[in-house]
């Protein structure tokens, strides 16, 4: 897009966070239902870096026939700074990696990722009251797109908040422990032992036990597998204990993701967040959602796309696919019967518990 095509956001203080809101002026008077698309930016960037994507998806949406002037649904985009970024910067050094001389890289980055997740849920709680205090519009759908650091937080937000119904994780990773272990190996940290293939790294000073426990509570892979390796996932014919564990994981998966959609965009040549760190979890996830869902539960849609020749970049192809995926989620909002914000004729319809 050219500079002249970029939308100018309204920057509002929401819950103490400077938040760029795109598309408020584009809402038609008839748009009583609004979808919020939350945009999570990369490490070392700021909320302003999401301006081009926000402008593109909104111009695409409002130029389509489905969003005509008499449509009852509108779309807005919102972006705010990750912790220790942009307007929230405390110490730029602590956004750096081990190679940048930051000995607390694993803990610092987890604080940014998981902190973004906490901030996101709080903003979802309050955003309707800030933007539409008169009650003339209601927010009935929340979506998230994140890039790199934002891709990690997009994964975690999808698993944490039932109100987030679709997510695009761009060059992000659903397995924080594996990502940091791989990065420790490449950084040649002393705590990643060559002789034991890094067996003692988790729980070391560079990845403390408290961080391992935090991952078990907030990271997708940690929630489902703890600190243990996936090792091929849950195969039919496993021993009884393994089968029981597989059943527990399936239950947790549907409790967290029932009826949701996720698009995963990975660069084939990404060296910073390499595909190998996500592959075991993605292989298991695709197999798990491919099975018949428990009775009366909606399927989970997982769409993984690998972009040939692309490194650690939000490529043109990824942008195109992300726009299409998210707008399809907006179009099919009424089909999502598990959405806790689902409304019919102005009334909230309780989702199945």
TrEMBL record:
Residues 73-313 form the AB hydrolase-1 domain. Gene3D superfamilies: alpha/beta hydrolase. Pfam families: Abhydrolase_6. InterPro entries: AB_hydrolase_1 (IPR000073), AB_hydrolase_fold (IPR029058). Residues 226-245 are annotated as: Disordered. PANTHER family: ALPHA/BETA-HYDROLASES SUPERFAMILY PROTEIN, ALPHA_BETA-HYDROLASES SUPERFAMILY PROTEIN. This is AB hydrolase-1 domain-containing protein. It comes from Podospora fimiseda.
């Amino acid at each position: 897009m050219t500079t002249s095509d970029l939308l100018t956001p309204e920057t509002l203080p929401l819950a103490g966070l400077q938040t760029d809101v795109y598309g408020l002026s584009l809402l038609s008077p008839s748009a009583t239902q609004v979808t919020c698309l939350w945009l999570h930016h990369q490490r070392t960037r700021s909320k302003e870096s999401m301006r081009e994507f926000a402008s593109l998806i909104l111009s695409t949406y409002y130029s389509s026939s489905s969003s005509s002037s008499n449509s009852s649904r509108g779309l807005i985009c919102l972006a705010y700074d990750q912790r220790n970024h942009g307007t929230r910067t405390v110490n730029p050094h602590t956004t750096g990696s081990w190679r940048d001389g930051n000995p607390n890289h694993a803990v610092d980055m987890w604080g940014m990722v998981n902190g973004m997740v906490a901030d996101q849920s709080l903003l979802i709680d309050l955003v309707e009251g800030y933007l539409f205090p008169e009650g003339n519009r209601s927010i009935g759908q929340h979506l998230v797109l994140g890039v790199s650091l934002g891709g990690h937080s997009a994964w975690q937000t999808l698993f944490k908040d039932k109100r987030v119904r679709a997510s695009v994780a761009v060059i992000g990773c659903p397995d924080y422990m594996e990502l940091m272990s791989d990065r420790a190996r490449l950084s040649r940290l002393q705590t990643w032992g060559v002789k034991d293939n890094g067996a003692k790294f988790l729980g070391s000073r560079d990845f403390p036990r408290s961080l391992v426990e935090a991952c078990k509570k907030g990271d997708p892979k940690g929630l489902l597998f703890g600190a243990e390796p996936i090792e091929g996932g849950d195969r039919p014919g496993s021993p009884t204990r393994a089968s029981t564990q597989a059943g527990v994981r399936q239950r947790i998966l549907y409790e967290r993701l029932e009826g949701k959609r996720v698009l995963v965009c990975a660069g084939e040549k990404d060296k910073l967040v390499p595909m190998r760190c996500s592959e075991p979890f993605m292989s298991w996830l695709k197999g798990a959602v491919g099975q018949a869902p428990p009775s009366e539960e909606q399927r989970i849609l997982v769409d993984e796309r690998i972009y040939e020749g692309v490194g650690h970049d939000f490529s043109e192809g990824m942008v195109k696919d992300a726009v299409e995926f998210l707008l399809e989620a907006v179009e099919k909002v009424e089909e999502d019967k598990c959405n806790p914000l689902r409304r019919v004729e102005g009334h909230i319809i309780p989702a199945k518990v």
